[in-house]
Amino acid sequence: MDLYGRSLLKESDLTPEEFLYLVELASRCRSEKRIGFLRHRLAGRSIALIFEKTSTRTRSAFEVAAHDEGGHVTYLGPDDSQLGRKESIADTARVLGRMFDGIEYRGYAQEDVETLARCSGVPVWNGLTDSWHPTQMLADILTMRDHAGKPLSEVCYCYLGDGRNNTANSLLATGALLGLDVRICAPAALQPSAAVRDIAAALARRSGARLTVTDDVGPAVRGADFVYTDVWLSMGEPPDKWDERINLLLPYQVNAAVLAATGNVNVKFMHCLPALHDRRTEIGQQIYAKRGIEGLEVTDEVFESAASIVFDQAENRMHTIKATMVATIPPIGLER
Ligand code: CP
Ligand code: NVA
Q1: Mean pLDDT across the stretch 2-11?
Q2: How, if at all, do strands 156-160 and 226-229 pair?
Q3: Is 51 helix (H, G, I), strand (E, B) or coil?
Q4: For helices 310-328 and 57-68, what crossing angle results, to 10°?
Q5: Is the pLDDT of residue 109 over 90?
Q6: What is the pLDDT of residues 185-218, one digit of tens each?
Q7: Which of 17, 32, 131, 201 is deepest in the core (most CB within 10 A)?
């Protein structure tokens, strides 16, 4: 499979075969790393990591993956460059494209990452925008493949919570691309936009995916192999929305009763992280002081249970991001 020179901006940029090729390559990278076999496929390569929002996993994954493969990274945080303030995305792209062999971008508008890809002339990887989180999806599908105990094509997952954030959009599009049974369960005010549903429906027509968007938790989780949630207020959303969001989403919290309602004793819990599941964070403490609620999108009981595979997901970010970089940056001398 030749993906040299390609960008990863959203899931629908890939065919199902290309998506699964990256997952398979990541699985091989993981096996090789575990026996200490590192190939240095990015030797002599420089990679820019642009973060307009904060990150633990995505940044660390890109840095460690690039290092494992012999590449060099330059981190540009929210206040580290001229980007957006004194220099447009298009101009920045043309500068960075002259120096770097690939660019990771985490920001707000999807249009910004698309402009960066169009103008830089090098592969650009979307490390999260307000619309999509495609590198997360590669890790999530690898994790589901590991834990499903059945062919991926038979997998059913249900996402509960803010159904129109980046993670929910990407889960809908990814399941649609790969032909899975996907349920998005959220109150009417927080369900996926018509635009996202149209993209998913078009993918599903080709793949045979079964897509459900509902506000009814019981039927949504029934029979699910994986129950997935994400924070109720995403990066970039105003903190004064917390109260409204909690009121809307408390009925969609993932707790022991929700896992039991799947009827599947082997159900697994997934979360892209970071998660608010206890009082050991600033936000967790503030919300507890104001509302007396300890866990938000997931209870501590579920987060810490044997069903929880969230740290496998987190580790898989690194292997899948490594696969994405080595698959899309052409070997030296084979640039197009
Ligand atoms: N899941 C994820 O993208 O985590 P970070 O925000 O820590 O990168
Ligand atoms: N929806 C979350 C995902 C974090 C990885 C956010 O955008 O903050």
Answers
A1: 97
A2: parallel
A3: strand
A4: 50
A5: yes
A6: 999 999 999 999 999 999 999 999 999 999 999 9
A7: 131
Domains of the chain (ranges, CATH numbers): 11-132+317-328 (3.40.50.1370), 156-224+226-263+268-306 (3.40.50.1370)
Cα–Cα distances in angstroms (integers) from residue 116 to residues 7, 103, 113, 128, in the given order: 10, 9, 5, 14
Tell me the C-alpha distance between 295 and 229, whole Å: 13
Is the Cβ atom of 310 under 6 angstroms away from ligand 2? Answer: no
For residues 62-88, average pLDDT:
95
Contact 255, 267 (CB under 8 A): no
And the tokens for 142?
Answer: 């690898």
Distance of CA 219 to the CA centre of its chain: 25
For residue 336, what pLDDT is reported? 67
Q: How far is the CA of 44 from the centre of ligand 2 (A)?
A: 32
- In the sheet that holds 156-160, the strands lie side by side as 210-214, 181-185, 156-160, 226-229, 268-271
DSSP state of 53: S
Q: To 5 degrees, how large is the angle CA 74–CA 6–CA 320?
A: 65
- Where residue 331 falls among pLDDT bands split at 50, 70, 90? confident
Q: 58 CB under 6 A from ligand 1?
A: yes
pLDDT on residue 84: 80
Q: Catalytic residues, which ones?
A: 106, 133, 136, 230, 272, 317
* 28 CB burial (10 A radius; 0-12, 13-18, 19+): exposed
82 compared with 269, residue with greater pLDDT = 269
Segment (H or E) for 268: strand 268-271
Q: For tokens 């999807």, what's the residue?
A: 110
Q: How far is residue 154's CA from residue 149's CA, in Å, rounded to a whole number?
A: 10
